[in-house]
Design brief:
Layout (H helix, E strand, L loop, with lengths): L2 H7 L16 H4 L14 H4 L28 E6 L4 E6 L3 E6 L7 E3 L3 E2 L2 E6 L26 E3 L6 E2 L12 E3 L6 E2 L12 E2 L7 E2 L8 H9 L2 E4 L2 E5 L5 E4 L6 E2 L10 E5 L6 E2 L12 E3 L6 E2 L21 E4 L4 H8 L3 E4 L12
Parallel strand pairs: 3-6, 4-7, 6-8, 7-9, 8-10, 9-11, 10-12, 14-16, 15-17, 16-18, 17-19, 18-20, 19-21, 21-22
Antiparallel strand pairs: 1-2, 2-3, 5-6, 13-14
Amino acid sequence: MHLKQIAALLMTAGCILSAGCAESTAAEESSGSGLWLGIEPAREDEFGKATYEDGLYLSQKVLEPQPDPYKKDKTLVREGETDEGIRYALYEEHAEITGHTPDFNAEELVIPETISGLPVTKIVSVAVSEDNKFEADREGGFYSCYTLSKVTMPESMYAIGDYAFYGCKNLREINIPESVMHIGARAFAMCSSLTALTVPSGIDTIGDSAFALTPWYEDLLFHRDLIIFNGRLYDVGKRCTGEIIVPDYVVSVEDFAFFACDTVTAVVLPESVKSIGRYAFCDCPMLEAVVIPNPKCKIYDDRSTFSNKKNSGDKDFYRGMIYSEKDSAVHRFAKKYNYHFSETDAYTPEATKHS
């Protein structure tokens, strides 16, 4: 989901109240208190009244994702298409949206709650070439359906697949119900008119670059310090710099979360963080320290998870310090890649320089 990562990829087709963030304006300081103090509201003239409820932008609550009730229902009964041009697959207990007909030209799409009496639970992933990410089944999902301006989904929906609405350049608004637990990679990427969207408060996974290059997501990056959905830290706002203090309800640092953050010098994670994804701290030339209090935290096992290199083509190296508990899984990770290591208690913002 990381905009900095996808922006480079698509050329052919923030800290939470930490001292390192950009200084708050008087308007920001009056916009809230507690968690929201210092976070300026969205621009009302373009995106409507700023809202901080659970499921929108940020939430302090971490909800247990609901399991897919039809995970084992894999017997295909038949395939078909609706009068509106929506293609579907019927299984014994549920239905899935598989794509659209060549003459599909709806402006407002209402995905049916049931087809032949079966609940519609998923928009399947669009088939994409393994060799070229930009070669896709153009009739899969609603890939590049330029006529679409608004989409409404039923409460039966559980998952939105990879590239499902990729490149729908006139899509302005989409209603995603609270029942959705998974949003696939690049599901809404390149939707250059998308300004109205709500992420479900209990979302389990959001794929890489799901909202990349949409006005809605760019607005988050400019007006939020950290992009957090249901306790998962996905991205860092454009104003963050220096030391980043991650709030203590965050449970994971997702893939590419701090990718190419060239002004961040230190990241202090809470003990609640249980995992750190791939390339999470990659291409961070100023990064001098990452504090990981949870000794059992699972770190994606690759040298490029932490890197001070400036460009993706350069060789990975990390000269900073990793802080955690001695003889922990984090310590073993640091030893494996010969990274500087110290115990958590030794961390201070002033003691992060290393040769």
